[in-house]
């Protein structure tokens, strides 16, 4: 039985799953319900300067029939009285002494920071998270991402906090910056105990086509918000990796961004996170998702033989390299499993229009065939194929050779001129441009109706040409 | 034991004849349209006799462009809504869906199609209109799927069009011959009214064309004449006792059912003779009307029936029993039908042969003959130079629909011998193009 518990920079938690500072942690009621359901920790919705919220606060991105693959909000930090929040933190900690309660904070002056840090310590918080990430509403007032985007300011505030902090301090970073390691390094310099990332990404989640306004719409108008949900995971993973790999950062990382199930959590952990935070998924499906997350993590760790979370933290990092370190001698090409192919021909049209014209159709069957010599091994066909394990990418090199761009650069064998014979695409077959004209028009513009329409259009063209003369 | 009790009111009728392909709601349409893979050179399009660009209209539904979806459907097939509901999609578009090869439920194309067209019809979306008048006139005999489709297309091309219909309602077998659980009368007629309002062809109902004199008048006033006359009454069996009360033709039975609904009487024990899709319909309908026993009698084996498998399954599902390898020899009774005398048959080398001495009487109080419809050869003989093939079908150019009398064109059952609504709709539209090409010479 693997041990899911963590000790994150001194904050102990029965499992690595924390609720992120957000609407699900707005009250003691919600946090207690979450702990009751199995969550290991909660970062309280940010306490700090007084705010007023608008009505109509969230917007969503749907993909076809899938709701909320992306989510954004224009809600601000907690608008509840500080005293109420402190009392509830105390109550939760009394009831759940072994769960992690982390107070997220956002104030302005040194004195304010000192006061509020003391307050949440006295209330029994296990840790503090400094909200330097909120990309809307607060940044205009010089807080949130306005701090996260200025490493020196960030460092100064961290130093203020560390003057009075007796519990671990996590700095929450904004992704709205070119190089995430800069604020991470500033947090380290300021003396923070850990970092968490990513906060939401500044976004416009969609535009109402009838009202000509961005979502969410507040009385006919909208504002940029903070983007999160499954769609942001790839951005978060990359930033977590950047911080984890940077030799100067060396801080525990709480991974945030697009985590909805155990797999997402494991990905964050493999790239260096040692706790993970969840918000959108809990807002979408409720606290009950924690059961799937812990069960999946437990099963995965059992199968992999990991005894503790720390057996897997950062385990993928050695395999995340710079592009120039990748093996140019590695070669895969696609293989279509004819028995599994259902003949949708998405691979054909994807390769034909979106890749390297390395798939052809065959007489008498809808199963396409790979043209091995044209296949560059880009993966596209295997990605669009709707059948599991139908198109596989098979290794073609014998694995004995290893040559990287960096090595070629050092050896002086890289292409250097525009028409260099050594360029990669130099020897790939490419069809003549004019061969595209009219190709398979009856297939790409199908239907008898279209054929009629084409006739009509041709006639109209001919007629207008005649009248022009 | 009957599956259904006899319906005594319109709501009870509709409960017994509930729609096989009910209307989708917006959520269902979103979920279902999301599943479409958008195949390249999609097999569903090729399986559609009217060549509707199915992946295109499904994608349009999925992106909230339901009106655009209706345009895509109607520009290929003017019976877009009816076809969505009455087409044998199991053997056409949905049967061709690549998901079948993955043992995944195919996309419900028919229901998605009707989802889009119903909205256009209900909102009276003006999608099409008549073309600029070209001064020419075409007469159309028969307001069935072929005739109405031709009328729409000809109007679109700028022709003045008059349709002459023997019955009181348009759409032919769509409203008179299709099983009520496939589409309701209201839904059929709403689509017809929608088309008529957009294209502005004129239909004269209760106006059968039966005489040479009437044809003379049409030939005089119109540049071309389109024969969309379909087929005739049920073929007689030429068996003794066929005249007995309650021995009826399937086509006539279904036509009455479509108009009378719950006021339609059916026997307690019904024998349906035939193995085609109409036989399956008549048998299912008898069961849904509350007949206690319904027997489907066919002279060959189950596998040799012409009906689609899903149609037979549908009949079996409502309690219809099959009686195979039997040929009727007499309708027995005393004024009224009391039974059918059968003789057992065996199929030897593809030929049906009777088994001597195997006669038996299967008692019943109603017989429905689903043994095919007669051709309208007598009427067609009034048209000089019009050639029929050896099955009584009008001979016409495959592409243009022009008959051997150059002024006459044809489509639908009269030409193809009896097929689906979608075939007639597709042929009618193509033939309108043929007429246009001929008259534009």
Automatic annotation (TrEMBL), chain A:
It is an enzyme of class 1 (oxidoreductase). SUPFAM superfamilies: 4Fe-4S ferredoxins, FMN-linked oxidoreductases. Transmembrane segments: none annotated. Residues 332-361, 366-396 form the 4Fe-4S ferredoxin-type domain. InterPro entries: 4Fe4S_Fe-S-bd (IPR017896), 4Fe4S_Fe_S_CS (IPR017900), Aldolase_TIM (IPR013785), Dihydroorotate_DH_cat (IPR005720). It comes from the Bacteria. Its EC number is 1.3.1.1. It catalyses: 5,6-dihydrouracil + NAD(+) = uracil + NADH + H(+); 5,6-dihydrothymine + NAD(+) = thymine + NADH + H(+). GO terms for cellular component: cytoplasm. GO terms for molecular function: dihydropyrimidine dehydrogenase (NAD+) activity; iron-sulfur cluster binding; metal ion binding. Pfam families: DHO_dh (PF01180), Fer4_21 (PF14697). The keyword Metal-binding applies. Keywords: Iron, Iron-sulfur, Metal-binding, Oxidoreductase. PROSITE patterns: 4FE4S_FER_1, 4FE4S_FER_2. Heterotetramer of 2 PreA and 2 PreT subunits. Involved in pyrimidine base degradation. Catalyzes physiologically the reduction of uracil to 5,6-dihydrouracil (DHU) by using NADH as a specific cosubstrate. It also catalyzes the reverse reaction and the reduction of thymine to 5,6-dihydrothymine (DHT). Belongs to the dihydropyrimidine dehydrogenase family. This is dihydrouracil dehydrogenase (NAD(+)). It comes from Hymenobacter metallicola. The lineage of its organism: Bacteria, Pseudomonadati, Bacteroidota, Cytophagia, Cytophagales.
From TrEMBL, chain B:
It comes from the Bacteria. PROSITE patterns: 4FE4S_FER_2. Residues 27-60 form the 4Fe-4S ferredoxin-type domain. InterPro entries: 4Fe4S_Fe-S-bd, DPD_II, FAD/NAD-bd_sf, FAD/NAD-binding_dom, Helical_ferredxn. GO terms for molecular function: iron-sulfur cluster binding; oxidoreductase activity. This is NAD(P)-dependent oxidoreductase. It comes from Hymenobacter metallicola.
């Amino acid at each position: 039985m693997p041990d899911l518990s963590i000790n994150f920079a001194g904050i102990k938690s029965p499992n690595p799953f924390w609720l992120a500072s957000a609407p699900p942690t707005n009250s003691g009621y919600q946090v207690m319900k979450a702990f009751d359901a199995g969550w290991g920790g909660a970062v309280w919705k940010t306490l700090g300067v007084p705010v007023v919220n608008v009505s109509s606060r969230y917007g969503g991105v749907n993909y076809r029939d899938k709701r909320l693959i992306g989510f954004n909000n224009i809600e601000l930090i907690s608008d509840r009285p500080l005293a109420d929040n402190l009392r509830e933190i105390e109550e939760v900690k009394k009831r759940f002494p072994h769960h992690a309660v982390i107070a997220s904070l956002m104030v302005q002056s040194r004195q304010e920071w000192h006061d509020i840090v003391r307050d949440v310590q006295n209330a029994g918080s296990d840790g503090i998270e400094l909200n330097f990430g909120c990309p809307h509403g607060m940044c205009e007032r010089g807080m949130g991402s306005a701090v996260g985007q200025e490493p020196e300011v960030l460092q100064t505030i961290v130093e203020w906090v560390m003057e009075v902090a007796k519990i671990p301090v996590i700095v929450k970073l904004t992704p709205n910056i070119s190089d995430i390691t800069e604020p991470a390094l500033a947090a380290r310099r300021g003396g923070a105990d850990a970092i968490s990332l990513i906060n939401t990404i500044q976004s416009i989640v969609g535009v109402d086509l009838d009202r000509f306004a961005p979502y969410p719409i507040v009385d006919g108008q909208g504002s940029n918000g903070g983007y999160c949900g499954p769609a942001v995971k790839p951005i978060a993973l990359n930033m977590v990796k950047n911080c984890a790999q940077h030799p100067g950062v060396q801080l525990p990382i709480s991974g945030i961004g697009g985590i909805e199930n155990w797999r997402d959590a494991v990905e964050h952990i493999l790239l260096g996170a040692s706790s993970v935070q969840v918000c959108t998924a809990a807002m979408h499906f409720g606290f009950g998702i924690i059961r799937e997350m812990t069960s999946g993590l437990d099963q995965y760790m059992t199968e992999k033989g990991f005894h503790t979370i720390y057996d897997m933290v950062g385990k993928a990092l050695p395999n995340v390299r710079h592009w120039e370190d990748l093996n140019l001698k590695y070669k895969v090409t696609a293989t279509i499993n004819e028995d599994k192919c259902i003949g949708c021909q998405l691979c054909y049209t994807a390769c034909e229009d979106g890749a390297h014209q390395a798939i052809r159709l065959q007489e008498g069957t809808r199963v396409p065939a790979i043209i091995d010599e044209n296949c560059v091994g880009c993966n596209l066909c295997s990605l669009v194929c709707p059948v599991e394990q139908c198109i596989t990418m098979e290794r073609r090199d014998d694995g004995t050779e290893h040559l990287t761009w960096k090595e070629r650069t050092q050896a002086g064998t890289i292409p250097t001129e525009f028409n260099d014979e050594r360029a990669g695409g130099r020897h790939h077959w490419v069809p003549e441009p004019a061969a595209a004209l009219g190709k398979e028009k009856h297939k790409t513009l199908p239907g008898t109706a279209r054929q009629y329409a084409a006739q009509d259009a041709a006639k109209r063209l001919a007629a207008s040409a005649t009248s022009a003369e | 034991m009957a599956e259904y009790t006899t319906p005594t009111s319109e709501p009870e009728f509709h409960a017994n004849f509930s729609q096989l392909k009910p209307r989708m709601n917006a959520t269902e349409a979103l979920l279902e349209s999301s599943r479409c893979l958008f195949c390249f050179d999609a097999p569903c399009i090729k399986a559609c006799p009217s060549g509707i660009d199915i992946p295109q209209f499904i994608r349009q539904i999925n992106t909230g462009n339901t009106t655009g979806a209706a345009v895509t459907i109607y520009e290929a097939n003017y019976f877009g809504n009816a076809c969505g509901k009455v087409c044998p999609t199991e053997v056409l578009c949905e049967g061709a869906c690549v998901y079948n090869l993955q043992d995944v439920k195919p996309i419900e194309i028919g229901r998605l199609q009707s989802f889009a067209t119903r909205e256009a019809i209900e909102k009276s979306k003006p999608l099409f209109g008549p073309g600029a008048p070209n001064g020419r006139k075409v007469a159309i005999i028969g307001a069935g799927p072929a005739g109405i489709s031709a009328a729409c297309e000809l109007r679109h091309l700028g022709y003045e069009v008059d349709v002459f219909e023997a019955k009181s309602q348009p759409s032919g077998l769509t409203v008179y011959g299709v099983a009520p659980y496939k589409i309701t009368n209201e839904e059929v007629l709403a689509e017809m009214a929608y088309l008529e309002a957009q294209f502005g062809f004129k239909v004269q109902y209760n106006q059968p064309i039966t005489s040479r004199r009437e044809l003379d008048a049409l030939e005089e006033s119109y540049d071309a004449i389109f024969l969309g006359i379909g087929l005739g009454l049920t073929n007689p069996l030429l068996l003794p006792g066929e005249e007995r009360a309650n021995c009826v033709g399937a086509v006539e039975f279904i036509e009455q059912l479509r108009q009378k609904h719950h006021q339609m009487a059916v026997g307690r024990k019904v024998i349906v003779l035939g193995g085609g899709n109409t036989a399956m319909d008549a048998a299912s309908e008898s069961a849904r009307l509350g007949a206690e026993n319904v027997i489907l009698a066919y002279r060959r084996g189950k596998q040799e029936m012409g009906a689609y498998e899903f149609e037979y399954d549908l009949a079996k599902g409502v309690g219809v029993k099959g009686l195979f390898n039997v040929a009727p020899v007499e309708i027995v009774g005393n004024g009224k039908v009391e039974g059918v005398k059968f003789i057992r048959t065996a199929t030897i080398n593809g030929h049906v042969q009777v088994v001597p001495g195997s006669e038996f009487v299967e008692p019943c109080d109603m017989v429905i003959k689903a043994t095919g419809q007669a051709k309208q050869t007598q009427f067609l003989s009034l048209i000089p130079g019009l050639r029929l093939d050896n099955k009584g079908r009008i001979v016409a150019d495959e592409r243009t629909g022009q008959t051997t009398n150059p002024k006459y064109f044809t489509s639908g059952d009269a030409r193809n011998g009896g097929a689906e609504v979608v075939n007639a709709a597709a042929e009618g539209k193509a033939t309108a193009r043929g007429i246009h090409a001929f008259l534009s010479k």
